[in-house]
Amino acid sequence: MGAYCCFSTSMPTRNLPIDYQKLFRALPENFLLLAPDGLVLDNTDGHVAASLKPREEAVGKTIFEAYPTPDEQSTQVIRDSHDYVRQHLQPHTMPIIRYSLERPAEQGGGYEEMYWQATHYPILDEQGQLEFILQRTQNITEQYRAQLRAEQVQQELAEQQERNRFILESLPILVWTALPTGERDYFSSRWLQFTGRPLEAELNNQWIHNIHPDDQARVQKQWNESVATGQPYQVEYRLRRHDGQYRWVLMRAMPRYNANHEITMWVGGGTDIQDQKQMVQELLETNEQQALLSDQAYQAYQLAETQRETFYNLFMQTPAMICILRGPEHRFEFVNPEYQKLFPHRQLIGKTVAEVLPEVIEQGFVTLLDNVYNTGEAFVGNEQEIMLDRDGSGQLQRSYLNFTYQLFMEGGQKAGITVFAFDVTNLVLARQALERPDSTVQ
Description:
3 domains, Beta-Lactamase, 34% helix, alpha+beta, five-stranded antiparallel β-sheet, elongated
């Protein structure tokens, strides 16, 4: 420790001696003075307090004897930093290491997990040779934990965004969004698959070119009026499919408002109603005298859809019944208001289909769900008859649904089933009434 005597040397400044060792120990940071071979020579009072070890228990020992590391990896990190300073005679900042300190008995005892970052500085003599290694240690436990929490929150946010994106892309509806001024700025993959056009070919006002020429002016006029007034948008038109066929679609959109009641975006979605349109047309052609009733049936269908499917901001207001069933037991994880309307007296979230809808078991719907989950093959039901207790009376009522069961994956593993459905009970009953022989006017 011969080199250490420099700290007891006094230099005259205005004839006043300076105790450099006292000055060093009073420095307001955590410094540890080492010999080139790692022997502890001295440390500041701040380092004594931070290390929870008296100075006399550390001085004269090597750094690893005085302050044992928790594992070999941490020991090697410190050795590598010392070697770098010895070899290059330049400062070196170590990676963050975990170093837990034992609290004194008066502070409750036990170990407190802490994270530290240390920089080693070379102190050279007049010949440029390494005389000391000065270690500056910083307790960054709070900052490190805050960083970990921030990273965790960011990861959870990213996972939630990815989950929402997956659900959005999985919905069998044609979803799009628009700016407050009306320019379309997003189309879902379902839309792009339907039209067969790339995203850049649909943005802004280019989507209008997919619409049948006879419908374009009417559709553009209704969209402009909704954008100008903020009123919900609803229109039927013929949309060109990727194979060149025009299909009738029912398109709805709702504005999203901020706290100042300013429109921040539009969210829209469409469903293919070609079959319903064609059915109405066929009924009209079968008997012109039934045209009024057929038109009323279709209008009743539209009215029911409108009342039941006020379009929401992406999920909660989508114009269809949607739920997510998690796991092989088909547990309700998400139910939108339209789906809940089917069972107003039942609490669905958190329960399995078998628990909350026992009447559908014998009707084979749980078996259908099992098959979709096990095979991965989607199931599409068209005007599927189902008996449900819809009012809590215990009496089963006949309903008809158009629905899709589709398996979704997470992390390459089966996660559950998305359910997308329309209640077409009124439409089926109206058609059945029209098709009965006694309904034909002689």
